[in-house]
From TrEMBL:
This is Hemocyanin_N domain-containing protein. It comes from the Eukaryota. Pfam families: Hemocyanin_N. GO terms for biological process: melanin biosynthetic process. Its cofactor is Cu(2+). Belongs to the tyrosinase family.
Length: 121
């Protein structure tokens, strides 16, 4: 698989849908431990169902998840505004997570590149 920065844009396509749903003809292969409790028991069926017509499958690596307590304090259906101080704190924490997450090798790769870069075996 070729490392393509456009994969990040696909994550922003229909952001209210689960990431395992198809984004056009592209599907993210999400590890079961990233699925919510609602979808975890049927993880393999979901991956197969939504990936049937995929032209490209993007494997998502399983990494140690960062502390998401602050960002997850905002409900999924709540409105967001940078004019609200608590929301600014949430946004700042997400930026820190995405820009500063280190992989196990100690190199300063971003969370995006740690998750979506080609898996070398």
């Amino acid at each position: 698989m070729v490392f393509d920065k456009k994969h990040l844009l696909l994550l922003l396509d229909r952001p209210r849908e689960p990431v395992f749903m198809g984004k056009g003809r592209v599907v993210f292969d999400v590890p079961d431990n990233y699925l919510t409790d609602r979808y975890r028991p049927i993880g393999p069926e979901i991956q197969n169902r939504f990936g049937e017509n995929a032209e490209e499958r993007i494997p998502v690596r399983s990494i140690a998840l960062p502390d998401l307590r602050i960002p997850m304090s905002l409900g999924r259906q709540e409105q967001f505004s940078l004019f609200i101080p608590r929301h600014r704190k949430i946004a700042a924490r997400l930026i820190d997570i995405f820009m500063g997450k280190h992989d196990n090798s100690g190199s300063g790769r971003s969370l995006y590149s740690a998750l979506l870069s080609p898996i070398v075996e």
